[in-house]
Write a structure and sequence with these properties.
By secondary structure, the protein is of the alpha/beta class. It has a single domain, classed as NAD(P)-binding Rossmann-like Domain (Rossmann fold). The protein has helices spanning about 15-30, 40-50, 65-80, 105-130, 155-175, 200-210, 220-230, 245-250, and strands at about 10, 30-35, 55-60, 85-90, 135-140, 180-185, 240-245. The protein has a seven-stranded parallel β-sheet with strand order 3-2-1-4-5-6-7, with helices on both faces. α1 (about 15-30) crosses α7 (about 220-230). The chain starts with 7 loop residues before the first strand and ends with a helix.
């Protein structure tokens, strides 16, 4: 299906993991994509995976930089004739409990995950608020944005924040014709968890926590993200959708 012909979607964290899978899915469905990553190498990786380079526009951006985010999306809207979607995949993780949380690491996680998502949402809304036609945002929360996780204090705080702002924005943006939802992935095979996959015992423990018997693939998360941008999800806003193999259903 070509559900995105004539539509342009911005994807942050586009260089790897769920972001890269979302870029590929959107391109397969006819979209033009603005592939955003914090490094040129990440942008290059996103561009390299595109069979039709004319429909991919790369941009290096630190989502923590509010002014640069505002400028980029305003520029892309003008250059590409409009924006119809935003997927906020940029994020980092980190360990630490209330006993040993490092203040600098805490600020970094909150800045990238939560503040960066807010920056991109604000930039998108300001760019498209006076437009017409379908416009939608998908934020990336986590199972850790629905339930507590020991020794992940700052990450949990940032992801609960993303779940919260998604719900808060929905009544604000609805009158503007802009939908906003979030996906809460479970454990997904991305670079963020590669270190966990090196220990067979850890893999077995992780798999056992999922009723489906395994962790997810980025493409499975991207399929739901992209669905939330389509007209098939036109009555959905303010939702946080679990895509986690049943993990949060049984903890």
């Amino acid at each position: 299906m070509k559900r995105f012909e004539g539509r342009t979607v911005v994807v942050t964290g586009a260089g790897s993991g769920i972001g890269a899978a979302s870029v590929k899915r959107l391109l397969d469905e006819g979209a033009t994509v603005v592939a955003v990553d914090v490094t040129q190498a990440g942008v290059d990786s996103a561009l390299a995976g595109a069979a039709d380079s004319s429909r991919v526009h790369g941009a290096v951006l630190d989502v923590c930089d509010h002014d640069s985010a505002m400028a980029l999306l305003a520029d892309m809207r003008k250059k590409l004739g409009g924006l119809s979607g935003l997927i906020n995949c940029a994020g980092i993780t980190g360990e630490g409990s209330i006993l040993d949380s490092d203040p600098e690491k805490h600020r970094q996680i909150m800045a990238v995950n939560l503040d960066g998502t807010i920056n991109m949402c604000q930039a998108f809304v300001c760019a498209v608020k006076d437009d017409t036609g379908p416009r939608a945002i998908v934020n990336i929360s986590s199972g850790a944005g629905l339930l507590g996780v020991p020794n992940r204090l700052s990450y949990v705080a940032s992801k609960f924040g993303i779940s919260g702002i998604t719900k808060s924005m929905s009544p604000e943006l609805g009158p503007l014709g802009i939908r906003v939802n979030a996906v809460a992935p479970g454990m997904t095979r991305t670079p963020l968890i590669e270190y966990m996959m090196e220990d067979p015992a850890a893999v077995a423990r992780i798999n056992a926590k999922h009723p489906i018997g395994r962790i997810g693939d980025p493409e499975e998360i991207a399929a739901v993200i992209v669905f939330l941008l389509t007209d098939d999800a036109s009555f959905m806003t303010g939702s946080v959708v679990s895509v986690d193999g049943g993990q949060t259903a049984c903890l």
